[in-house]
Amino acid sequence: MASAVNTANPADTNSDELVFYLQDEHEHAEGSSTALGFWVYLMSDCLIFAILFAIYGVLGSSYAAGPGPQDLFELELVAINTAMLLFSSITYGFAMLQMDKGNVRTTQLWLAITGVFGLAFLGIELYEFHHLIEIGATPQRSAFLSAFFTLVGTHGLHVTFGIIWLVTLMVQVNMHGLIPANRRRLMCLSMFWHFLDVIWIGVFTFVYLMGMLR
């Protein structure tokens, strides 16, 4: 008995080239699971910083007969550092405005300026940590310093990852332009960057300003 044979060729396509992968990323609807998932991540980060703020609130006055905020903090330097991070949020906002207009080069320029401000923030923070350790104000010295280094260091680590992410996206935009996938990633980084800005305002107020008033 003759059997039916499927003569359809699965390799027949409009082009002469075989394709074994999806050349175009599948479409993401506006308000898709990517944005939702990133908001969930930000909420989990909020919980982490809330715990660190609570720990600092409990241990922030436990000096163990050691130096306190008035003895250690240079408020002028911290104010300059705060300005660096605030400026970086403003320049990132300019980058997003240029992205909406489809200007690749101008978007890249503002992203680069944002990265410079972020690096300046990290540089000043590392200088502060180095100065404190040099004078013996290490995390082991007191509960206050342990809580301080943990809270401020965790924020600095987030900024470091944010700069790495920023550089990665600049490379992606340079290679592929402002495609929908890159726009979505830039939006996620925008939320992350402004989130770090808000957290730092809390650190500056709760740790530095209130510490100097104790």
From TrEMBL:
The keyword Oxidoreductase applies. The gene is cyoC. It is found in: Cell membrane. The lineage of its organism: Bacteria, Pseudomonadati, Pseudomonadota, Alphaproteobacteria, Hyphomicrobiales. Pfam families: COX3. Residues 17-212 form the Heme-copper oxidase subunit III family profile domain. This is Cytochrome bo(3) ubiquinol oxidase subunit 3. Belongs to the cytochrome c oxidase subunit 3 family. The chain crosses the membrane at residues 38-58, 78-97, 109-127, 147-171, 192-211. Cytochrome bo(3) ubiquinol terminal oxidase is the component of the aerobic respiratory chain of E.coli that predominates when cells are grown at high aeration. Has proton pump activity across the membrane in addition to electron transfer, pumping 2 protons/electron. It is a multi-pass membrane protein. It comes from Tianweitania aestuarii. SUPFAM superfamilies: Cytochrome c oxidase subunit III-like. NCBIfam families: CyoC (TIGR02842). Heterooctamer of two A chains, two B chains, two C chains and two D chains. InterPro entries: Cyt_c/ubiquinol_Oxase_su3, Cyt_c_oxidase-like_su3, Cyt_c_oxidase_su3-like_sf, Cyt_c_oxidase_su3_a-hlx, Cyt_c_ubiqinol_oxidase_su3, Ubiquinol_oxase_su3_dom. Keywords: Cell membrane, Electron transport, Membrane, Oxidoreductase, Transmembrane, Transmembrane helix, Transport. The keyword Electron transport applies.
